[in-house]
Task: structure prediction
Amino acid sequence: MVLQVEDLHTSFFTKMGEVKAVDGISFHVRERETFGIVGESGCGKSVTGLSIMRLLPEPSGQIVSGKIILEGKNLVELSKKHMRAYRGKVVSMILQDPMTSLNPVYTIGDQVGEAVRMHQDLPENMVEAEVIDVLRLLRIPAPEVRLKEYPFQLSGGMKQRVVGAIAMSCRPRLLIADEPTTALDATIQAQYIALFEDIQEKTNVAIIFITHDFGVVARICDRVGVMYAGKIIETAPTRDIFKNPKHPYTIALIKSVPQLDKKDDRLFSIEGQPPSMMNLPKGCRFCPRCHVALDICKEQEPPEVKISENRSVSCWRVK
Amino acid sequence: MVRFIIIRLLQCIVAFFGILIITFLLLRVSGDPAALLASPNFSPEQVQAIRVELGLDKSWGEQLGIYLNQVAHGNLGESLLQKKPVITKIGDALPNTLKLMVPSFVLAMILAFILGVLAATYRDSWWDNIVKFLAVLGQALPGFWVAIMAVLIFSVQLQWLPVAGMDTPANYILPVSTIVFFTMPGMMRLVRSTMLDVLDSEYIKMARIKGLPERTVIWKHALRNALISPLTIIGMLLPGVVTGAVITEQIFNWPGMGRLLVEATFARDFPVVQAVVIITAILVLGINLLIDISYAWVDPQIRFQRT
Result:
């Protein structure tokens, strides 16, 4: 087990009150596994990623309780200095927008090399070879030339590979990819996903893939957790979740993926809005938008039910 | 890049002669120096004789032609008041101004960057609030008033520091503080706000993801990106610093370029005023050119542009 998250609560303390962005989630990721976190904007999936990195915006964002156990160490309890030594070395992250993730005034070699110098005790003359090595891992053509180039000289897809190279520069055990393909166009997206599989094969890295796109989930994730309003409402292997989704929200989400072989006039969409994170409903959070809600759904939050070895669901309809 | 510098150099030369001609004409509009040089009991013929001697009887066009010819040959003329070459007067005054202005400006900029960066880093802390308050204070209070108050409090009342002059290091404290006080706040605010923008960006998040220490994130990754607009403003501040020095030098009786300029203007000593303006123009244009070139160092995209 590379990562085990247990009952994680992360809140933002604003002038208007506490926003429980992540409200008690648990999941784990194994070595060489890709775990997908899927959900709408604002459901707390990015905050989950930032919590693991311990890079929540200060001072408003805070981990309130829970455990994040990475390679046997609880990250929540680490000092700032200790956590910094983990960041980039044991756990790393790729952000959504490649156009703004690279510093415009430093060369690629500088920016990748910086991460290498930070965590690996290499003599200076070996740093460049190491940088070229990791650029190759990300299949960046002519890495010796790229080294001396600036971000504005690269295309969007190439920039996102460089961001990947920075994240992978110390061969971390866990990689958090926060919508890394959302800003890329469809063909580049497919290449980038294939690249992830390749990297995983070579380095055994565990990946948390955060996305809102079930199509991407189907292509890369081994298991997936569906998040809604700060909670994971269903966890299952990817194959099972497409074949037999249990939670009404998951069912609706999968139904709203556009399909080429069906000639529907209108794309299916879920009615209503996710609840305000400052004013959550008393019972099930999805209840106001749910077509199959029972009376109990309005009153009480459903517990997480383990329905098989690898699957769990939080819904009163699922026993 | 070379082409860029050449174009900018040509622009500087055009601007330089523009400044020269405008100053020349403005001075002539201000009045007749012969009337000031002559005693009240001089006859009109005697006054006319002074004009002829100084070459002021010729038309403005002719005078301008002679003057431009002189300047092109590196001759700045003679003072009308004392028969001394202008160049010696400037030679006496310029080092004094530089002795005052260079440390003041450098100190102001260093403080502005340090305070501005720290205020942005610790946004909304008590520290940030102090910086914001200082910035408002410095921009709201006029420099000459601050200088006079400083003299009143520290020299007259407390008698800690000398009133005027430039003989001892203690003489520098008040004028330098005054100049720092009115040049630093604007820059400090600008550094703070550009730093806030930069600190919000994704590449700063990425730098933290790498596990870099906070000081590297701020002083290496953020500051270099936040340099462009402060550099522009430094270019715009420099002329202001020179005129600011006029007031400061006047108040602290500092024998520099500012005081020379004020005295020469009141006496309608045309060659001196023109020479001071020329020197100032060369300094300002030269520094602006250096600033433009420094953009290329800060932003690689400018360096690679083929303009």
Summary: The CA atoms of residues 19 and 281 of chain B lie 7 Å apart. Chain B touches chain A at residues 201-203, 205-213, 221, 224-225, 298-301, 304 (CB under 8 Å).
